[in-house]
Amino acid sequence: MGDYKRPGRPKRQSKTSAAGAGWECSVCTFRNNQGAYTCAVCDARKGTATR
After folding, report:
1. Dihedral sign, CA of 25, 23, 39, 44?
2. What residues make up the domain containing 39?
3. pTM over 0.85, yes/no
């Protein structure tokens, strides 16, 4: 009885760790570093809407 482990739910991952570190540019979809305020490819600001 002492060594039996019940199978449990897998731990939830946060959105940042599940998607990888960083943010996706809404203009060109490039994945940028988390600390960047502008996209490394198209220079769009973080959080810029596409419309």
Report:
1. positive
2. 21-51
3. no
